[in-house]
Write a structure and sequence with these properties.
The chain is an alpha/beta fold. The chain has 5 helices and 12 strands.
């Protein structure tokens, strides 16, 4: 893992009621792979926590910024490691690290991404890279507890329209009567409709229950364990 770098906060924007998009000004090249994470904390204090980078490195370089999706508490605060975070604040960034990575040359054309909650963060970086590569068949199954908690939803819908992304949204707990998408957990039956071929490469990121249950369901549907990459959020 690389050393510590101090960066300034360019923006903290609302993504959903319980998450924020943190943008850090990038003052020099930063090498990483789509799906990897960094440790972030306020400058000069030891408490840092893992956050996945939400853009592929080529986008970060072009924009001069790193971006993360940060979960907040019910009161809107992030936690003591980023207490009072605002534009212009300095943070220490350590990394990158992690083996949850989208390959530079995917072994198969069909790719299935499964995200739960803020687990969409590394998946977004992977999707942007996959779309840029071209020639891939991309499917995203994205679940959240509340219908208001789907981060990057307008962008994902643009991916569906412009890049052919197959998009399945599932609210697992709360959704209004007007919700026109799925409800409940990602079951084996639901997943079966998303698998194009047994050679599909699968990338699963989310809370422990999802990351434990989904790979088992995928294997029952004929996906080899070696084709399933996971990350717990």
């Amino acid at each position: 893992m690389a050393g510590v770098r101090t960066l300034s906060v360019a923006a903290v924007r609302r993504a959903t009621p319980d998450s924020r998009i943190l943008t850090l000004t990038l003052d020099a090249p930063f090498a990483y792979e789509p799906g990897q994470s960094v440790l972030i904390g306020l400058h000069g204090q030891p408490d840092r926590r893992h956050y996945s980078l939400t853009t592929p490195p080529e986008k970060a370089a072009a924009e001069g910024a790193l971006e993360c999706l940060v979960r907040t508490g019910r009161d809107g605060t992030i936690g003591p490691h980023l207490d009072g975070l605002s534009r212009g604040a300095l943070v220490d960034v350590e990394g990158p690290e992690g083996r949850f990575v989208f390959p530079a040359r995917p072994a198969t054309r069909a790719c299935l991404f499964i995200a739960g909650g803020t687990g969409i963060a590394p998946i977004r970086a992977m999707l942007l890279r996959a779309i840029a590569l071209g020639g891939l068949s991309l499917t995203l199954a994205y679940s959240a507890r509340d219908s208001r908690e789907f981060a990057y939803l307008p962008e994902l819908r643009r991916m569906k329209r412009d890049a052919g992304l197959r998009l399945q949204l599932t609210a697992t707990r709360e959704a209004p009567p007007s919700w026109r998408h799925d409800r409940g957990r990602l079951t084996q039956t639901r997943l079966s409709s998303l698998i194009e071929t047994p050679d599909t490469s699968c990338f699963v990121c989310g809370p422990p229950a999802l990351v434990e249950d989904v790979p088992r369901a995928l294997m029952k549907l004929g996906i080899d364990e070696g084709r399933i990459l996971t990350e717990i959020f």
